Amino acid sequence: MLRTAPDGSIRRAAGGGRTSVGPPLVFSEVFPIFADVVLRIKNMVCDRCVMVVRTELERFGCRVVSVRLGEVEIVGELSSERKAGLAARLEALGFELLEDRRERLIEAVKRAVIELVRGSEVVPDVRLSDYLQERLRVDYRQISALFSETEGRTVEKYFIAQKIERVKELLVYDELPLAEIAFRLGYSSVAHLSAQFKQVTGLTPSRYRQSGGGRRQTLDKV
Question: Which residues pair with 10 in a beta bridge?
Fold first, then answer.
């Protein structure tokens, strides 16, 4: 049961009708806050991006409900002038406020692929086409055609590029054996991993590790 304390805060009543002396309830615990606007933002690829975008939105005066990779929910509509101002501030930080539906879908595909590669220690054993179609609720043929047309490469090649970038990290920072890296990234064998790594980077995994890990890219540039 909820009771109003003398200071005006809402508190839960303890058993027997007595009011608890715990901390005041947050308003959203009692009355859920619903978003009015969903913003799609390009180049959000990590937890730090989420933190930076949330901070900037709050500085801009937005009432933020949630921030996820590529997506922000806020309370209240934004005027054209406010949206343009927000877009400029995000652009200064390396992000982009997306308006076009096709651009939003491309960004959603990239975000889904990054989460597939980096969302767990071991990449799930799923078909990329099935994963994206189920995740985005869009026919994979449409996803594939639009991605190839817009990005100049297939979704599969983008998936491989993200996997190779993850392999680079594991080679240099975690110093894992190749067999373990191959297992984590879903390769059928060390030979398969080595062949694909050399095809993309021009180096064998062992040579790359010995070089100290040069030629790394940020995830939004992969």
Answer: 4
| Spatial separation of the C-alpha atoms in residues 208 and 221, rounded to whole Å | 20
The end-to-end CA distance of the chain, in Å, is: 53
Q: Return the closest-CA partner of residue 97 out of 80, 112, 113, 76.
A: 80
Taking the C-alpha atoms of residue 27 and residue 10, their distance in angstroms, rounded to an integer, is: 8
Helical (H) or strand (E) element with 98: strand 96-98
**Minimum mean pLDDT among 9-23, 148-162, 168-182: which range?**
9-23
pLDDT in tens, 82-121: 888 999 999 999 999 988 888 889 988 999 999 999 989 9
- DSSP states along 121-188: SS-----HHHHHHHHHTS-HHHHHHHHHHHHSS-HHHHHHHHHHHHHHHIIIII---HHHHHHHTT-S
Residue 173 binned pLDDT confidence (cut-offs 50, 70, 90): confident
pTM: 0.65
Residues 6+ apart with CB under 8 A from 194: 178, 204, 205
Contact 43, 220 (CB under 8 A): yes
* Domain annotation for the chain: domains and CATH numbers: 1-31 (no CATH), 37-99 (3.30.70.100), 104-221 (1.10.10.60)
